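Case study.
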Amino acid sequence: MVTRHQKLGLDDTAVLKMYETMLLARRIDERMWLLNRSGKIPFVVSCQGQEAAQVGAAFALDREKDYVGAYYRDLALVLAFGMTSREVMLNVFAKSEDPNSGGRQMPGHYGQKKNRILTHSSPVTTQVAHAVGITLGARMKGDSAISLVTFGEGSSNQGDFHEAANFAGVQKLPVIFFCENNKYAISVPTSKQLACEKVSDRAIGYGMYGKTVDGNDPLSVYEAVKYAADRGRKGEGPSLIEAVCYRLTPHSSDDDDMTYRTKDEVSEAKKKDGVLTFAAYLREVNVLTEDIEAALEEKIKHLVDDATDYADAAPFAEPESSLKYVYDEKGEI
Amino acid sequence: MAVMSYIDAINLALHEEMERDENVFVLGEDVGVRGGVFLATKGLFDKFGENRVIDTPLAESAIVGVGIGAAMYGTRPVAEIQFVDFILPAVNQIVSEAAKTRYRSNNDWSVPMTIRAPYGGGVHGALYHSQSLEGLFSGTPGLKIVMPSTPYDAKGLLKAAIRDNDPVLFLEHKRAYRLIKGEVPEEDYTIPIDKAEVKRQGEDVTVITYGLAVHFALEAANNLEKEGISTHILDLRTVYPLDQQAIIDAASKTGKVLLVTEDNKEGSVIGEVAAIIGEHCLFELDAPIARLAGPDVPSMPYAPPMEKFFMINPDKIEKAIRELAEY
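After joint prediction, the assembly is written out as follows.
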């Protein structure tokens, strides 16, 4: 029997690796909440519920060459692009060795040049224009890299989304606009954010391909993003892919989501959790056996423990180093 | 040495930098086929083609934001904002992004980008084609703001801005474009971005200013010379970060200081110059620090008598210097 993933050109090793990345992101995220609730770290912004979308998208790209403009929920995406568990925990603990910002930014604000993860800020959607610029720069230098940039459905209302989408459309740049629609912009639901039915409806205004897929299913996301990436590489321009997910946690460790949604709604969403449903699929096709699953959990537990211990023990940056890197300091000792 | 206008010096700098480094490119509204509404980018499209001279959609935040991304990739964009009055939609990209990229990434990423924009009044431009908005951007560490006064400085500073590894906001006085002419060497040269320059040596009163007002001050100083009043003029050239030592030296030289800007008085960059002098030159001063600036109204009106009332000019500067000299 040919499985669904094989039809998409993914072998068993690849889908197992996808699952492992999703599970690692989930376990790191769960650890972050424990650390926050026990007073070890001041802040968490969560990825839970969006791992499937992020991993499906990342695996559809060339992870040796392409660029990603992440936003603050993209833990699974940056793990898929080469950030390590220790590096993520160093970010969470705001330690000097954190490759994202050396402890300068809040947790979840990613950026790592060696893995082609663009640095981003807290004002939403600014990174969308940067991802467009990346492909403009690549085209000018004769490189074939494409970029994928993520944002939420609320952020798709920002002027920067529309300005950058139009720019990419006019210039036919190979950018994948990847909307992780998690149904809430903090407390405001999609119905109060969008006048159109789907975020992907917005694609046509910018002369680009648009598609909405089930963000809990990494294979559907993989298929859509692969198609968009192929279009981009063939010179057919940008695409807008909307992955419909659900934010399983409050907006952040400082939010109480029970003030604007119900326990029942969250419980319902948990039944469709991509980490669980993808595991079920992999068991069904005999890729995830009991032995493999136990070994994976063991391996990930060890990775998360090691990363937590390492980051907890790592030093903070010297306070005076706050003065560094306002401008280029090349030549200075 | 050729004598050329301020705008021709800018155009020459762009041609030279694009020839020198294939990573340099230009983007903005009307910068391509048209060569810019002021013709600052004239001839670039024909010489370098549409891939390096990009007519963009009319959307300022994308012009700057896409430029930032291209700079992150390793190119050197020169973005043109058609009038500085239209830069406000791009403030988030300039202040939250370009200026903070190096710092927030702990030196991992950088934005070597120049943003050029014409500013200033006296051209019948009314509220939205006349403003001086440098005060809005000053006090943004990570960003540099350059405002040259002469064709020589414009060429050397623009080349330095393009080669700089950090974002530079390069503001050109639009009335200076064709009004101001000067000698400009044909050969390659740059001027350091963080240095002010004494444009006139004098003994009695110090004027500290920048941009077109430097020429107004020079004219006033020449008139006052006949009355025996000797004026020292410091051209800031870079208004952020400020060349503090040059300001302290210029203020201390005469002990009487007039600060001049075309911007509104309250909140302008000369207020910061006054603070530096106040901190460092108390015992050097022989008179209170004086400021000459635009009135604190939202912007410059259109009707000629109202525009003239708003604008600073050589007569207003002359009067202010004389008052200080007599203090």
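Observations recorded in class. Chain A has one domain: 4-310. The radius of gyration of chain A is 20 Å. We will return to this complex in the next lecture.
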